[in-house]
Amino acid sequence: MSLVLLSEAIENYLTARRARYSSTTVKNEGHVLHRFVAIRGDIEVRHLTAEHVEEYFLSLLQPHTDRSGVHRPAVQPSSHNYYLARLKSFFAYCTQRGLTRVDLLAYVPPSREARRTRQQPSPEIFWAMLDTAGDPRDRALIATALNTGLRANEIAKLKVGDVDLDTLTLRAWISKSKVEDDMPVTSDLTAELSSWLAYYARSIERPLLGNDHLFPAATGPRYRWRC
User: In this predicted structure, what is the pLDDT of residue 129?
Assistant: First the structure.
């Protein structure tokens, strides 16, 4: 097996990940892996054992000071499972490249997470939110969010040409899965978008173009439609 330090293997792993995943995802993975090295020590990957990894996770269950002198609180079960998933991916990378033949997570089971009751606003609250929008653009934007479940950055990227009210579809880029999806437009959303598009065209005093932002930034009394 190759004589590769943990820190070297981690940098190679993160470099490979950057080609496929967002910078935020890679940064978060790097935080977990570098913390692992700070606590475990920068040893050769071939010397890493399942007992080493078990000790690392046990150390996370109580407040501690890592080798960099940083005081760390005990992690919650959700954090434990997140660290476990990140290390599992890294160890799989090491195994595939012949850096280790050991099942490094043999003694580390997932933690049971408490199920939290999340806030679930009633439909009446959602409709009240829609009716309080003071601007036609804001009303249509909120209606789109409520009817599609798209994220804010996904809605911001929508163009007029992405809306087809004849086929009742909305083409959107789903950032998490990195795919384009033709989403159905409900009857409620059809009414909101029809009203908004008519107002939008009147506001900028010209017919709408396919590459106009569906929800443009507003400056002064008129919508800014040029990118």
Answer: 81
Sign of CA pseudo-dihedral 100, 103, 105, 110: positive
Integer Cα distance of 51 and 106 in angstroms:
9
**Rounded to whole angstroms, how far apart are CA atoms 86 and 30?**
9
CATH architecture for the domain at 123-223: Orthogonal Bundle (1.10)
Structure confidence by residue, pLDDT tens digits, 84-118: 999 999 999 999 999 999 999 999 999 887 777 77
- State how far the Cα of 211 lies from the Cα of 161, in Å rounded to an integer: 6
**How many angstroms separate the most distant Cα atoms in the chain?**
70
Cβ burial, residue 21 (10 Å; 0-12/13-18/19+)? middle
Domain boundaries, the chain: 6-96, 123-223
Cα Rg, the chain, nearest whole Å: 25
Which residues are CB-neighbours of 72 under 8 A, at least 6 positions away?
60, 63, 64, 65, 66
CB 155 within 8 A of CB 171: no
